[in-house]
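Purpose: get a first structural picture of the assembly so the mutagenesis plan has something to point at.
Setup: two entries, given in the order below. No constraints added.
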Amino acid sequence: MSLHVAVATRAFRRYSTYRAATLAGIFTNSVFGVIYSYAYLALWAANPDAGGYDAVDAVTFVWLGQALLMTVALFGGGSTEDLAERIRTGDVAIDLYRPVGLIGWYLASDLGRAAYHLLSRGLAPLAVGLLLFDLTLPVSPLHALAFVVSLPLAVTLSFTVRFLVACSAFWLLDSSGLRVLSLGFALFFSGMTLPLVLFPGWLGTVAEAMPFAGFLQVPADLWLGRHEGVDILARLGFQVGWIVVLLAACALVLRAATRKVVLQGG
Amino acid sequence: MTRPVHHPLIDVRDLARTFVRRRRIGRLRRTTDTVKAVHDLSFTIDAGEMVGYIGPNGAGKSTTIKMLTGILVPTSGALTVAGLEPQRDRVELARRIGVVFGQRTTLWWDLPLRDSFDLLQKIYRTGPARHRENLGRFVELLDLQDLLDTPVRQLSLGQRMRGDIVAALLHDPEILFLDEPTIGLDVISKGRLREFLRALNAERATTLVLTTHDLQDIEALCDRVIVIDHGTAVYDGSLTGLHQRGGSTRTLVVDLVDEAPPIDVPGATTRRVEGPRQWLAFPADASAAPVVAAVAAAYDVADLSIQEPAIEDVIRELYSTPPAPPG
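Result (structure tokens, whole complex):
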């Protein structure tokens, strides 16, 4: 445990050294937040109550999206990128010499990174949004708490997907093709491009059932107070359920990959 | 009373590893080749030995090291390292061995050296006191004090290599595997590294298994050499024995006062004549004294010098000789 805390702390520190990049990123997030906000305001003016959101909810969703974009690594990146590179170069063999699990290691590192991105690329754009627009705040401490709990779950969930994509490099030599594909899915089905509540009929149903919904749509709806009581637990349970399934998949894939390396010699 | 059974630290018997390579032959058809990377390989290494494991590129050195460290499964044969079966007990073995690659780093690229070392203490759960003691000692011996706070990416190759060696040793491994540890280092760094490894072996009796292309590493460090070629050992023994085995010769360079026909003395043959200078070859294991005496008695000598056989030549000789049939 203390090892994983140390790994997370170091990842946090590592990202915090890139100050200029952080500032530039905050600026970019804010600019996109403003653009999307006006687009959504126009959309909701024409169609109030679309998807059950009012205009304020819609703008809040935009800023939550900007705040979680880096935290949840919707555009990829994070510790899994390091892993993909280590697989490509063969350095991953060194990881096999260590008496420590690969998944726990990279997850701890990614959570450390996410904590930094939340505090910098998350809070700052949200503050900009609050200054410039009228935003919905969590309706109760319980909803705020649920949102906070859902954040590490969202990061972990996104991590499992990115980990699986990175591991494909064991067989494909280069995981970039699959990464682009998964990036498209993440951006579209997390709600980043458009809140999932706007997806019509079966597409909406499918989108809300996919793990990507746990990246942004679930935390955002908890913030917006769209769930009450047991429903809140059900939403968190949705994230946990996918995490369990995907972590198991990660473990299986990693075992197969290790066997491949050990049996076939990489 | 019976003598206790002797268990070598590393025991390799009839080890073999084949790789299957798929190859396209034509548009759709494929064929598979079986490549024997290692075959009929047997040796034992005792605790505290320093063994050089050498061979040309593609001879099977890395394949052997990978099997010894448990990240490659042998096709056949038996293998124990520190009483463990590497491929089955990889994680447990990892706690008992250290591995250093000249061309890869086990350090974290963007962390200061100190942080990498701290992480390793947590990975191997080394006792804090023991960790401090080891770190202090190794850092001092390898002269890394001033670099502990430098991120690894800013270190020179030699500095990084020293950092990697410390990293591999912090958990008190019984065996240290070094794969090309001096590759790309300058003469001073090489010397310092060799000195450190000698001290390590002397102080802690750490067993060293070293693959290298730099035969000076072997000459400086190893009492024993295993030469591998085409996947199997073609020599296993002392460095001196390697000279004899290679049938190598020493050379007596004679500067005569005047030009003369090729010198003719018993026990040596003249290989080359260039003006007043002549090169005489005689067996490496023979004494130079009688040859020198014979030359001095029969000729007017201005100067004499003796050239030792280069180990490179000896080994090159060995590679080109087909292995002797067993038995």
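DSSP finds twelve helices and no strands in chain A.
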